[in-house]
Every structure is written in structure tokens, then in C-alpha cells.
UniProtKB/TrEMBL annotation:
GO BP annotation list: developmental process; nuclear-transcribed mRNA poly(A) tail shortening; priRNA 3'-end processing; siRNA 3'-end processing
Function in brief: 3'-exoribonuclease that has a preference for poly(A) tails of mRNAs, thereby efficiently degrading poly(A) tails. Exonucleolytic degradation of the poly(A) tail is often the first step in the decay of eukaryotic mRNAs and is also used to silence certain maternal mRNAs translationally during oocyte maturation and early embryonic development. May act as a regulator of multipotency in embryonic stem cells. Is a critical factor for proper spermatogenesis, involved in pre-piRNAs processing to generate mature piRNAs.
Organism from which the protein derives: Oriolus oriolus
Cofactor: Mg(2+)
Alphabetic keyword roster: Endoplasmic reticulum, Exonuclease, Hydrolase, Magnesium, Membrane, Metal-binding, Nuclease, RNA-binding, Transmembrane, Transmembrane helix
Entry-linked Gene3D superfamilies: Ribonuclease H-like superfamily/Ribonuclease H
Cited InterPro entries: CAF1_poly(A)_ribonucleases, RNase_CAF1, RNaseH-like_sf, RNaseH_sf
Topology of the protein relative to the lipid bilayer: Single-pass membrane protein
Localization per Swiss-Prot or TrEMBL: Endoplasmic reticulum membrane
Name of the protein in question: Poly(A)-specific ribonuclease PNLDC1
Gene Ontology cellular-component terms listed: endoplasmic reticulum membrane; nucleus
Family: Belongs to the CAF1 family.
Main location: endoplasmic reticulum
The keyword Cell division is assigned to this record: no
Length: 530
């Protein structure tokens, strides 16, 4: 089900009820970019510690924005069956009462989403507004002080507002008190913005939204206007303006209060965007970010870490994408003796996903995440005991068998295998680094070293000294050492910290000098005493 600004408010109560009844919710997001190339050394690297990666990712998250958020709500029925309501929410930063939001577009990301059919018109024209706590505080203060304004900077927005004002000012000159007129074809947030602008400009008008993109304008006396403003029928009360401007943040807060298990796939960047866009600007401290996320969502499950475990424990082919994992779990008979996996049934409003694959559509990917979680958890439960598994396992049983993966989010190409949001991060086990000694090849840089070795394996390269480079990979073949044994300019060996580290070498040199001076002093002292 696709949801934009036009229909979001009326769907919010039903969304709340479904979330409160859910066993868990799965989430996926799409952004205007992933890694900012305008920032130096911002690409992820195997050399990154979690803190270093967080600093890099934080800079990118602050530059890009969300365009779509997918939410799949999984509800357990009486039988061994889960019903899924999956939603696509188109998002656009709030333009009401706060400093105009700027964000960056990555050409490759835009092209990627366009290839998979993303509708940018819905993002731009009907995106649900949102704001974080800092932005909300600014708007609240301006509403109380009466200094709010609409940040409608596009020509299209200005044209809509100008047309509405022109129509009303032309009409009101000849209108009598209690006369009304109707403004039509107002999309999404224009319904609120037009009312606010008209009320601010004209003291003898009253406005009411009629639905179906219409606003009623009535000519009233200033006294009558003041009475209406203080009534419960005013659709532009400050609290309602705030509710409208917060938009999707209202649903985010429902998710936070519900404390349902939150499921995603490679969800580190998803969580960073959730924090930055709907909660608070990302803190500088990595540990503070982890604490905040854990307080917001005490139970997080990344299906990437789960499926890694399934691949090790079961005869599971190595596949990379979420759609491929889902396909393998659906088609393979990985558990011939155990009870069948739960039935996963899409609600009628989401039946399109049962008929057609829609990869990289956020609602579809969220549906895949939740489905992969259930099938993987069922498989692990059946493999965890020799006793017969009951035909209708509860979701709490699945959580028990998933306990080692809870709150551990996959860390792509880095110094740890996963980020532990409820404890210490576990180090990653890479093959030992290689060191390259360069002789007779002046001016060689990291990029050239990468090009030289990429045919053998995907290495990350870091300069150690003027003529030395370290190579790090998830895996490499010993052929690399053999093939470069007699290379005229490059000597490759296994890196040994005590032997190759500049700091260790410096310390050894200083120790050697100190020892030599001590020996000389001893020798000279002994000679003088003789």
C-alpha cells in the first residue's frame, strides 16, 4: 500500500492499532545517496574501526535524505500463520516553520532507484513531512511566539499560494459576511499552508478543510474570527499544526512506544537515518548513538547476521542479495523432517507483492526482511534440538533461538563483524594483512597499488610509509605471495606488527640508541676509575 501526505493522517490510527497487535515489524529505507564522494576518504574500508565508520557514515547521513520508508507489520494469527500489511511511505522534509532543509542527490543512487521504477513525483509532490526533536522544538517556539513561516521556496509552491490569495482577495471585496467560497486542487501540505497564509494575511476570513483537496473560505467579522480561533473546531490550532508538520514522525514515535522487535537487512544506515531524521541529529559519539538506538528499539534483528548463521549451520547456498536469500528459503527443502514453516500471507491491499517481485521498493524489501526472518528462525529452531518441534511455534520461541543475533547489526567490510547495540562489538577475523615493499618505482600511490593487485583479490590499501603499503582483504589466495616473489619492484610478505610497524621500529631504534649510550657511559666510567 502506497501512502503519501494526502492520506497519511487518516491512516495513522489504523496503523497504530496494527503495530500494537503485531508480533514484530520489518523496515527498509531508500535514500538520495549512500556514501558522499565529495568528502575525502569517505569510502568504507576494511581498515575502519566502528568509530571510524560511524564518523564517515554520519557525514553522509547528514547530507542525504530519505525518499521512501517501507514498513511491513507481521501479525500472528491463531494458527501457524502470519498476516502481513506492507506499506510504502513517500517522505519529504517538513517545510513548515523551520529552517529550509537542504539535502544532496547522488546521481548513481537516483539512477539506481529510477531503474527499479521509483516515482520521484510522489516523493516531491506528495511526500509525508517529518522532523526531529530539535526541529520540532524550534517550530513549537515559533508557533507560541507567532513568528512561524512556510518555507515554500519552489516556484510551484509560490504559484499555488499566490493563486489562492489572489482568488480570495478578489472575492472578499464584494462578499458579505457569512459568504463562502471553495478553493480546489490543493495537494497534501498545501491544504494547511494555504489556510495559514490566508489567516495571517486577512483578519476577516475563516477557513476549514473539506477533504478531497478542497478548502472552504468564509468571510467573517474580526470578533467572530476570534471566537472561532478559540473553539475546538479550529483545524489550524497550534497543536494540530504541529501534528501536521511532524507528519511521519508521529508514526516513528508509535513504533518507539510499542517497543516491537524491529527487523531489517544490513540496517546500520537505516538506523542512522531513523535517528537523524525522526529523533535527534546524530551525536558525535559512536557510543552515544548506540545507547540512543538501544533505548528507542530494545530488540533489533538484522537478517544479514541471521542468514550468515543459517549458511554456516545448514546446507545453504551462498547468495548475497535479500531477494536471492528469500528465493532460496522459499524453494529449498532445507528442513525435510521438521514441521513446515509458518504460512506468510499478504493482506489483500498488498497482494501485488505476491504476484510480482518489486526489489528495492521499500515496502517490498521490508516484506522480504520479515519473511526471511521467520523462515530462518524456524529453520534454526528445528536444528537446535533433537526433540520434535511443535507444529505452531510461538514468536517468543523464535526470539529465543535468535538470541545470539539480537541487537547485532551487520558491519559491511570493516574491523568488526557486527555492531552490538547492547554490548561490546566483537572483532572481525580477517586473514593476516600483507605488506608491499616498493623498490625502483617512484611516486607509486594507493590507487596504483589497488589496480596492480585487484586481479588477484579485492584488497583495501593503506600507505604505511613512503615505500610500504598494507593490503587487507576478507580472503586472499596464497598465490599472491608466490606470484610476486620475484617481482622486480614489488616485494609482498605477511605483515608482522613487531617487524613492520613504524612505531615499533621507532621504539626499537630509540631503545638501541639508549642502550648504546648506556654501554658507552659504562665503558667510559669503568676506564676513568681505572
Amino acid at each position: 500500500m502506497e501512502v503519501g501526505a494526502e492520506g497519511f493522517a487518516r491512516r495513522l490510527p489504523r496503523l497504530r492499532r496494527r503495530i500494537l497487535r503485531a508480533a514484530f515489524v520489518a523496515l527498509d529505507t531508500e535514500f538520495t545517496g549512500l556514501h558522499s564522494t565529495s568528502l575525502q576518504n569517505n569510502e568504507p574500508s576494511l581498515f575502519d574501526s566502528p568509530v571510524e565508520r560511524y564518523v564517515k557514515a554520519r557525514q553522509s547521513v547528514q547530507r542525504f535524505t530519505l525518499v521512501q520508508l517501507g514498513l511491513a507489520i507481521f501479525s500472528k494469527e491463531n494458527s501457524n500463520k502470519y498476516v502481513v500489511h506492507s506499506y510504502n511511505f513517500f517522505l519529504f522534509p517538513s517545510t513548515l516553520g523551520i529552517r529550509d532543509v537542504e539535502f544532496t542527490l547522488s546521481a548513481s543512487s537516483i539512477k539506481f532507484l529510477s531503474h527499479y521504477g521509483f516515482d520521484y513525483n510522489k516523493f516531491l509532490k506528495d511526500g509525508i513531512p517529518y522532523m526531529n526533536e530539535v526541529q520540532e522544538k524550534i517550530l513549537r517556539q515559533r508557533l507560541l511566539a507567532g513568528t512561524w513561516k512556510v518555507c515554500s521556496t519552489s516556484n510551484a509552491d509560490r504559484d499555488v499560494l499566490k493563486k489562492a490569495i489572489d482568488e480570495v482577495t478578489s472575492w472578499i471585496a464584494a462578499a458579505k459576511e457569512e459568504d463562502t467560497m471553495i478553493l480546489q486542487d490543493l495537494n497534501g501540505y498545501h491544504v494547511l499552508e494555504v489556510q495559514l497564509v490566508l489567516r495571517q494575511a486577512l483578519e476577516n476570513v475563516w477557513t476549514e478543510p473539506l477533504g478531497d483537496k478542497k478548502v472552504m473560505v468564509k468571510k467573517v467579522s474580526p470578533e467572530h474570527r476570534r471566537l472561532l480561533e478559540n473553539s475546538s473546531y479550529d483545524h489550524c490550532q497550534k497543536k494540530l499544526i504541529l501534528l501536521s508538520a511532524r507528519g511521519f514522525t508521529n508514526l516513528f514515535q508509535i513504533l518507539v512506544k510499542a517497543k516491537k522487535p524491529l527487523v531489517g537487512h544490513n540496517m546500520f544506515m537505516d538506523l542512522m537515518h531513523l535517528h537523524d531524521k525522526f529523533y535527534r541529529p546524530l551525536p558525535e559519539s559512536y557510543e552515544e548513538f548506540k545507547r540512543n538506538i538501544h533505548n528507542l528499539f530494545p530488540v533489533i534483528i538484522d537478517t544479514k547476521t541471521v542468514t550468515k548463521s543459517v549458511q554456516k549451520k545448514c546446507l545453504f547456498p551462498r547468495v548475497s542479495s535479500l531477494l536471492e536469500v528469500y528465493g532460496v528459503l522459499c524453494s529449498s527443502n532445507l528442513n525435510p523432517k521438521g514441521p513446515p514453516c509458518p504460512v506468510i500471507a499478504l493482506a489483500s491491499s498488498c497482494s501485488r507483492y505476491a504476484e510480482k517481485k518489486s526489489p528495492h521498493e521499500a515496502g517490498y524489501d521490508a516484506f522480504l526482511c520479515g519473511s526471511v526472518l521467520l523462515m530462518s528462525a524456524h529453520l534454526l529452531l528445528c536444528r537446535s534440538t533433537d526433540d520434535a518441534v511443535e507444529a505452531d511455534p510461538s514468536f517468543s520461541q523464535y526470539l529465543t533461538v535468535l538470541a545470539e543475533h539480537v541487537n547485532k547489526v551487520n558491519f559491511i567490510r570493516g574491523g568488526v563483524s557486527s555492531i552490538n547495540f547492547s554490548g561490546e562489538d566483537a572483532p572481525c577475523r580477517h586473514p593476516p594483512p600483507l605488506i608491499v615493499h616498493v623498490r625502483g618505482w617512484p611516486g607509486l600511490n594507493e590507487r596504483q597499488i589497488y589496480q596492480e593487485f585487484k586481479a588477484h583479490c579485492r584488497f583495501d590499501v593503506r600507505r604505511l610509509s613512503k615505500n610500504q603499503f598494507i593490503l587487507l582483504s576478507n580472503q586472499y589466495k596464497q598465490l599472491v605471495l608466490r606470484d610476486y616473489r620475484h617481482h622486480p619492484h614489488l616485494q609482498v610478505s605477511v605483515y608482522r606488527h613487531w617487524r613492520h610497524s613504524p612505531s615499533v621500529n621507532c621504539l626499537l631504534q630509540i631503545s638501541g640508541v639508549v642502550a648504546l649510550w648506556s654501554l658507552l657511559a659504562f665503558a667510559l666510567g669503568g676506564t676513568s676509575s681505572c
